[in-house]
Amino acid sequence: MPRYLLREDIALRSYENIPFCYCKKGERKPRILSRQEFSVLLSCDGKDVLPEDDTVRLLLERGVIREKRTEDEALLPWQHYHYCSSDFAFGMNLEITQRCNCNCLHCFNATGSEVPKEELRLDQILHILDEAYECGIFSITLTGGEPLLHRDFMAIADAAYERGIEINELNTNGFFLTRELLHQFRQKGYDPLIKISFDGIGFHDEMRGCAGMEDAALSAIRLAVEEGFRVMVQMNFNRRNASVILPSLRMLDEMHVFETRLIRTMETPRWEKLHQGESLDWETFYNSSIELLQNYCSEDHAMGLWVWPFVKASPVDRTYLETYVKFREGSYKGCASVCSAARTIPSIGANGRIYPCLQASGYFDAHGFVLGNVFENRLEDVLKAPAYRSTICMTLDERARKFSECGSCEYFKICGGGCPALGLLYSGAYGAPDPTKCLIYKRGIHQKIEKLFDDLGYGGLSV
Fold it and tell me: DSSP string spanning 326-385?
């Protein structure tokens, strides 16, 4: 009888609330198993002989296991079964440095006009990665600042993979992205989504406060695509660059970018201090986005377009997803978290603080909003502390009770009240109603979106 091994990209894990599951490289959530499947997989270590029963055949068909090829084959160190000390943390956003070669007008790290300079030392990062592994975190986003400015960047990447923590995403401005670095990634089997900032033709240098960044960003995009990596471009959308958005999207599509994520320039402390009034108001943003989607999706493109936090459009398969919809009719779950991303993906800043959302870290710092610090307590303890759990683990039913005007709304069981961080930004309380989602329904913008894609012949995707 044959011996079996877990596939090289799979490892068995147990969490407090999910006792039978496995994690897979390239995915950000574990896959749940039955008790029987889990029991069989515990024996797929290349040592035990197993009869080829229905469960084994099913696991072979699903690509979870394979037959052992040589006598000395064994599980990789990170694949060995591990009981995880957290109940629901699978990924992590880690800001390894706040240092940056740019001085962006909208920097979300800054609490004003100062230049953020915090940076994690290598020993601190290794400690965080050790604790992340114990908690069951198996994917990570490396961000900054500019993460490639960290002198120990490759050592950090290697340390993550040695612990079975895959770099799922790398956020960069592209200036320090080199062919040599990408070749190292390929040789070591690292395959992150590379997210490069680009804010529009003829505008990028101004937004980044640094001459030459437009050429550097476009060169980095071309290089990463040439080397076979998926590239997502992250692009601001405000009054200053609105006229160049569509031609910029067309250019990026021709460059074979995988997807562009278009983000309304938010009222970060620095942006508001220096450029107050230059963010698009939300209704203008939505209506301008609808016009942009109409123009872009009417043309022949392959690149996906995600207007955050509004709509995703995929021209290749002619589908769209309304990302402001949390539940389809009749699928509401009151026990769900107000933000599943914050619930399952803790965010740690270069100062050691843990945030609900790194994109609002400057706001949180400016207003003294602190959930814990990994320099003061173990990550496991921070994730289980009352200050953290009462915020991050807030359920939709709790939100409805706490903010009754939101819970009594006819659309609450569709949108779930929207983004809790935006509720904080505009209302002063985390989890408060997100007025940007109220606007979508109360101004009929959801009907405009449905009509637009219906006219284009796109099919809607389920949440």
Answer: ---TT---TTSBS-HHHHHS-EE-TTSBEES-GGGHHHHHHTT----BTTTS-HHHHHHS
